[in-house]
Queue: 2 jobs
Job 1
Amino acid sequence: GVLKSFEAISSSGLGDPSIFSHGISVALITTIAGLIVAIPHHLCYNYFIHVLDELELRVKNEVIRNKA
């Protein structure tokens, strides 16, 4: 997307924005698609790490209680 925009600018200059607008549009679409994938993944990852941290703490506390 961005590469196509720069190619269009280098071949025809900055006189007509419609020449490079398609490349920018493609770049924005791929960015949005990446965010749609990345944000839920990040949220789920943090949730599961939190669950594992709580489980680890409970197990450690149980081991300490059983040793005493």
Job 2
Amino acid sequence: MDGDLSTDTQPFGEFVKYWLYQVHLVDKKPSTKESYDNKFRKYIEHSPVSNVQLKKLTPKKIQDWYNDLFKSGVSTSVINGVNKIVRPAIRFAAETARIPNDFSKIIKIPEDRTIIKTPTPTVRPLTIKEQTAFEIAIKDDDYEMLYLTAMYTGLRPGELSALIWEDIDFKGKTIRVNKAYKVSKDIDLNKYIGVTGPPKTKNANRLVPIPDGILTKLKQYQINQKEKFLKYGVAVEGDFLVFSNSIGTYLDRQNMNKRIKKIYESCGIKNKRFYDLRHTYATRLFELGEAPKTVQMLMGHADISETLNTYTTVLEKQKVLSSKKLDKFYKGQIKGQNKMDKNKKPSERA
């Protein structure tokens, strides 16, 4: 490593800044850069260890800093996020001989084990009754097809925004999910930009089946869209966005959220978000008895544990229903056995 960039007297904060922006984040997505940049500026740049020279940096100084953060009310999860920057930076310092050894592994993240907090549920699917009311409320809405597609395919908002007509196989009745659209801050340009890139996880690249009813509506929606934009001299080709604004560009996520909130309110549905349409899809699948592995694949989750952890409440309800079904089966078996016993001759009974 160039000696001008780092010496043993270099402040730790300055070294972390170099590693973060010139090494770690060089090839990362804007959204990832924004997340790391926020953590660095809020927790590391002006921290007690920021001005400590590398040659004077010790495990105790880092540990004391983490402990002070925790005592001041910073959560364990946030400190873990900070550590995802600090730990590899320390490792990089050791690998480039700026410090004698990598001591990052011995740093302990403080955790309050005396208080068990009940997590706020993040999954708020529509009940069947709410779903019925919602579908009535969105009838003939400009974004009716967007909402229905979200609710009956489980695509993420960013995946829906990036969807083009080439991604829809009408003959095969599937949607090919291979990209997502997201607006995030570009820390190099210091402004927010929209970027279409790979979806959230490797498994998010997937084929999702389209129910026949939704497929029929999508075909008609495409015809209507072509007629609408033809008036403005715009041809709807295969690379045209399936769900766009009035000028054929990407939908604004904030406007989408505001719009759907008003629809929810109009039909008495409380505490729901656009994203909950995706959760509604997964919940209906579980209620219909679909296997968790299949749901994982359809949702594009990274692994089965994400699916099981996300839909714990739904799965618990299904366990109770399964128990009731088994109990009903058991009672039927006993009833059948008793009936058989009654039909037996006295000499045949045990």
